[in-house]
């Protein structure tokens, strides 16, 4: 069994709601964390991110002025002087699948839908600590690999070019039907 | 601690992308322990959360007060982007927090209100009753929560308001397929 030494981790929590910050602080401290920095908006969080260099960022999505999505995008700047690789856990009341996709495309590492639970938060932290994913840089994306599963049999149009399996053009069902007539 | 030095970062270039790997910068916080030495941090955290629960009623009252104030401002002076955003954030916070605070039915009503704010094509044209019924329902659920017989009524109220709101949204978005798709898509949060 593996155990996380939370007292060696530095957290940055960003949420405009003071009650949620209190809950997060309580959970993290009871896991054993000592260093938990708090910001109530994205702009303050970005400043604190540069100043304190946290190991893990936990952020809400919906916040005034500068939201959690923008915070993730600002952190994931490959040329920045700061650390663009820190795990970002987005904790949000948004619970639609399309929101997960948008967060993923902004470079968020893990998504945790509210209501928050101690177990859900612990599992997300354990995942980013024990199973970090490589980063991918394309013309339009910089962030953790969005593919969590390796499927070497996949030959579809979304396979990245230049890997062992090049894109193969598959005949459409209509073409197959026509050719069989 | 979280950042490796540049020399530890390995970049492999492909035709359309780069794959960047580095030694796990957080590996030092992982420690192998015997099963017998493994405490349960989740149980500890749940206990800590339970010790906070005495404050949840007051916190919920604060959240509901914020929602009411946001809507009063709109009723008095109309919708602006700032007032719309404040109403949405207040409802959205209740959607996310209310179940943790012990008011799951209020979370359901707040979710329904969020959907109206997010997907109605013109908020000025939304019947005022749709807003007031949602806000009054949240108020009632929070005030009556301690009564056991009110719990099933709260859940039923939440379900009915959601049905009314969804019917309205389906009707006003009949020519907006992207909104219809979002309205009809299932939540990623498992049902209780």
Characterize the structure shown.
Chain A: The modification 4-aspartylphosphate is found at residue 60. Chain A: Keywords: Phosphoprotein. Chain A: Residues 10-129 form the Response regulatory domain. The complex is a heterodimer of chains A (181) and B (192). Helices cover 35% and strands 18% of the residues of chain A. Chain A is α/β, with parallel strands linked by helices. Chain A has one domain (6-144): Rossmann fold, CATH 3.40.50. A five-stranded parallel β-sheet of chain A has the order 3-2-4-5-6, sandwiched between helices. In chain A, strands 7-8 form a two-stranded antiparallel sheet. Mean pLDDT of chain A is 87; it is low at 164-181. With 192 residues, chain B is mainly alpha-helical. Chain B is built from seven helices and three strands; from the N terminus they run βββααααααα. Chain B has helices at 41-52, 56-77, 81-97, 104-119, 128-144, 148-172, 177-184, and strands at 10-13, 18-21, 30-32. In chain B, strands 1-2 form a two-stranded antiparallel sheet. In chain B, α2 runs antiparallel to α3 and α4 (104-119) runs parallel beside α6 (148-172). Chain B is extended and about 60 Å long. The two termini of chain B are 39 Å apart. The model of chain B has no long low-confidence stretch (mean pLDDT 89). Chains A and B meet through β1, α1, α4, α5 and β7 of A and β2, β3, α1, α2 and α3 of B.
């Amino acid at each position: 069994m593996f155990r996380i030494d939370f007292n060696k981790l530095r957290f940055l929590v960003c949420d405009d709601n003071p009650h949620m910050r209190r809950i997060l602080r309580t959970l993290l401290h009871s896991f054993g964390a000592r260093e938990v920095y708090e910001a109530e908006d994205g702009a303050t969080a970005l400043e604190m991110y540069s100043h304190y260099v946290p190991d893990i960022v936990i952020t809400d999505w919906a916040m005034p002025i500068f939201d959690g999505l923008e915070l993730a995008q600002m952190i994931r700047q490959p040329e920045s002087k700061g650390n663009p690789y820190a795990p970002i856990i987005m904790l949000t009341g948004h619970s639609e699948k399309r929101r997960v996709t948008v967060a993923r495309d902004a470079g968020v590492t893990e998504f945790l839908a509210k209501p928050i639970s101690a177990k859900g938060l612990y599992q997300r932290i354990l995942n980013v600590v024990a199973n970090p994913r490589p980063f991918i840089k394309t013309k339009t994306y910089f962030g953790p690999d969005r593919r969590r599963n390796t499927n070497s049999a996949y030959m579809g149009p979304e396979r990245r070019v230049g890997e062992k399996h090049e894109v193969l053009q598959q005949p459409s069902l209509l073409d197959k039907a026509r050719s069989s007539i | 601690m979280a950042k490796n030095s540049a020399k530890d970062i390995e970049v492999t270039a492909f035709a359309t992308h780069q794959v960047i790997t580095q030694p796990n910068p957080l590996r030092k916080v992982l420690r192998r322990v015997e099963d017998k030495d493994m405490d349960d941090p989740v149980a500890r955290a749940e206990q800590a959360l339970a010790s906070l629960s005495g404050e949840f009623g007051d916190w919920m009252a604060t959240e509901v007060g914020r929602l009411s104030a946001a809507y009063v401002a709109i009723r008095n002076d109309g919708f602006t982007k700032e007032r719309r955003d404040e109403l949405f954030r207040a409802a959205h916070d209740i959607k996310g927090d209310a179940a943790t605070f012990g008011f799951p039915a209020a979370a359901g009503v707040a979710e329904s209100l969020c959907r109206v704010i997010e997907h109605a094509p013109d908020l000025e044209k939304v019947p005022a009753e749709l807003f007031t019924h949602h806000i009054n329902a949240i108020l009632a659920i929070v005030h009556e929560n301690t009564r056991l017989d009110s719990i099933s009524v709260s859940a039923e109220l939440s379900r009915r308001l959601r049905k009314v709101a969804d019917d309205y949204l389906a009707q006003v978005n009949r020519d907006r397929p992207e909104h219809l798709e979002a309205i009809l898509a299932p939540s990623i949060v498992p049902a209780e």
